[in-house]
Amino acid sequence: MAATPSRAIRLLIGFVIVASCLGCDQVTKHIATESLRNAPPRSYLANTVHLEYALNPGGFLSLGRDLPDEIRQWLFIAFSGGTMAVVLAILLFKRHLSWPLFIALSFCFAGGVGNLIDRVSNNGLVTDFIVLGYGPLHTGIFNVADVAVTFGGLAAVFFWQREKPNPTPSPLESAN
User: Fold this and answer.
1) 66-95, pLDDT tens digit by residue?
2) Confidence class of residue 99 from pLDDT cuts 50, 70 and 90?
3) I need a surface site. Which of 82, 115, 146, 172 has the fewest CB within 10 A?
4) Nearest Cα to Cα of residue 116 among 85, 155, 90
5) Number of other residues whose CB lies within 10 A of the CB of residue 107
6) Rounded CA separation 19/17 (Å)
7) Distance in angstroms (rounded) separating the CA atoms of residues 122 and 125
8) Domain locations along the chain
């Protein structure tokens, strides 16, 4: 059986993931704000990558954007802050969390904090600037924090499903 790395090593790796993602997110949002705000959208790689500046009032796919400003702002800040507090508690205190799940949740935390920083500093708005597409298919507009949350969330679900104990087989299944 492999030795479990120390808590300090685990926290150091989590810190590196969070700091890297958060730094990349904040730097790219700053660059997007400086170079794309008040500028026409830019397209690269045969119109596959589009860069355009947008302040998104909603959540995933602009969910909640039509709520009154003050309610939306505080609802998203409270929800994001509460969710990040829970994820941080899991990362810090759940000692037997598998490495893949720990890493996935670290990405979720980093992305969530990146967008939370935006919401707090931009009156509830998040800076988005990337759209990917090919022909008639395209994504919604997003940012680096959204990539971290999406990657981390999908990976967390995948690894959590793999770690769940197999359910007890029914009497008919065990008879075969």
Assistant:
1) 888 888 888 889 999 999 999 999 999 998
2) very high
3) 172
4) 85
5) 25
6) 6
7) 5
8) 12-162
SS (H, E, C) 21-38: HHHHHHHHHHHHHHHHCC
In whole angstroms, what is the distance from residue 6 CA to residue 29 CA?
A: 35
- What pLDDT does residue 5 have? 63
The residue among 44 and 172 whose pLDDT is bigger is 44
- Averaged over 91-100, what is the pLDDT? 91
Residue with the two structure tokens 């045969």: 46
- 1: pLDDT strictly greater than 50: no
β-bridge mates for residue 50, sequence order: 43, 131
Quote the tokens at residue 159: 């690894």
Alpha helices in the chain (DSSP H): 7-36, 69-93, 99-121, 144-163, 171-175
Helix (H), strand (E) at residue 50: strand 49-56
- Both tokens of 51, joined, read 């860069």
Q: Is the dihedral of CA 83, 86, 92, 98 positive or negative?
A: negative
For residue 92, give the nearest of 113, 112, 106 by alpha carbon.
106
Q: How far apart are the first and last CA of the chain?
A: 32
- pLDDT band at 26; cut points 50, 70, 90: very high
